[in-house]
Structures are given as C-alpha cells and as structure tokens.
Amino acid sequence: MGSYRKIEAVVLNARDYGEAHKIVTLLSREMGKIDAVAKGVRKPKSRSRGAVQWLSLSRFELYEGRGLYTIIQGENLQRFTDIQEDLRKLAYASYLVEFLNEILPQGEASERVFFLLVATLHLLNSGNSEAMVSRMFEVKLLKILGYNPELDNCVSCNAPLKENEVLFSVALGGVLCPQCNNEDPSASRVNAGIIALWKKLATTDLKVFTRLKASSSHNNDLQRLVQEYVLYHLEKRLKSLKFLQEVENLYMV
Ligand SMILES: [Zn+2]
C-alpha cells in the first residue's frame, strides 16, 4: 500500500511527459531531491499548473507507491517573477539550479539546502548582485554538503598561511604553503583576498549578506576557482554555464 505526504518544494526541473503530464524534479524541505509525476498538469483546467512551473516554490500533496511519487495536488507559494522576466537573473538562476541538481544526491533530506536555495532565489529576485549571490550559494552549498576545502592552514603540512599569495590545490582540496608547493605541481597561484572572500561567503549569515562587498575581479577569480574545484570533484560540466557566459557577454558589449 502506498502513502500520502505533504511537502514544500522548489521545482528544479520540469519536463513534458506523455500527452498532458510532466515529470518534475523537486528540492523539498522534507525529503530532499525527488522526482515526481504530475498527471494532467498541462491541461488548461489543471489547478496544479502553476505549482509545477520551473523555479516555483510550492506546496504539494504526494502519493508514494512502489517508490514512485505522484503529485495529487499543488499550490504555488512564490513564483520569483523578477527572475523569470530578466534574462540575466534567469541565466544565473538556471546555472545555480543546475549546479544544485548535479551536486545533490537523490533523496538525501537537508532542510539547510532547501532554505539556502529559497533564500538565494529571494536575494536574486529582489535585485541583489547576481554574481555575489551566486558565489555565496556555491560556497555555502559546498560547505553544507561537506565539500568545503581547507582554507586556513596548508592542506599538506598544516602550517597557517600568512602570505599575500597562496597556492590552491584543487586535487588536494585546499591551500598550500610555499614549502609544500611541490605537493601539487598543478596548484594555481591565488591572491589571499580571494581565499578570504571564499571564507567570508561561507560563514556570513544570510541575513547580513547584503552588507558584503567584493570587487568584480575578486568575484570572477573566486568563480573560476570554485568552478575548477567543483569540476574536479564532480567530474561534470554544467550546461547552463555556457548559457550564463553568453548572457554575460551580451551585457558586456
Ligand atoms: Zn605546507
């Protein structure tokens, strides 16, 4: 026998299925990431239509039978319309959602990940710097999921780092002191300010996030570093990153 559940979730992905259905990937507060079938939601009269749109924050009633989830009812709570109507915000949101979807294992419940995503979408929707919001999301998510690199002491000999320029080893997962630079010949030279920004973003409370400032060059360097790090540990390339870069190029000319 199956069972019924009520959840609150953000729609990470929605694809058409059959004539009138959709399969959605949800990040829920209660059950983590799950896939569910939303039957008949593409019919004009469906009351759950708005709830299953991409990026919507919605409340769902699910039926679970033999490991399959079916959406019985959905009610939309928030649509983040400013993101949906702005190409640049949309590109960033697509990237963040894909990043989350790729990095998060199926069915692993984490309220902290859910609240981080919802807070991030609110920050993007209310006009905060897309680049800063994205960096914050990336480093906080890595931290919650246990991928946080060693940023205070040398990852090899544990010496505290005081230099203005440090080495960052993607493979070893942290910073290296000058004495240990032969531990990883592919480690890249990084300004200590970028490591400081990474630490600040990882630890700053979301409520005071808007007070954080960073130069766009630090922000770009941190993005490159985080992406290199994620790519190495996830062994995946994100499709939406290409789209995001295209949109960024469009805005630069
Ligand atoms: Zn060392």
Low-confidence stretches: none
> Count of DSSP helices?
7
Distance between the termini: 59 Å
Write down the overall geometry.
elongated
Biggest beta sheet attributes: 5 strands, mixed, barrel
Average of pLDDT: 90
Please provide a written account of the structure.
The protein has helices spanning 81-84, 87-103, 111-125, 130-144, 192-203, 216-234, 239-252; strands spanning 3-17, 21-28, 32-38, 57-65, 68-78, 165-169, 174-176, 188-191. It is built from seven helices and eight strands, in the order βββββααααβββααα. It has 253 residues and is of the alpha+beta class. A hairpin with a 2-residue loop joins strand 4 (57-65) and strand 5 (68-78). Strands 1-2-3-5-4 form a five-stranded mixed beta barrel. Strands 7-6-8 form a three-stranded antiparallel β-sheet. Helices cover 38% and strands 25% of the residues. It has two domains: 3-78, OB fold (Dihydrolipoamide Acetyltransferase, E2P); 81-148 and 187-252, de novo design (two linked rop proteins). It binds zinc ion (ZN). Zinc ion binds at residues 154, 156-157, 159, 176-177, 179-180.
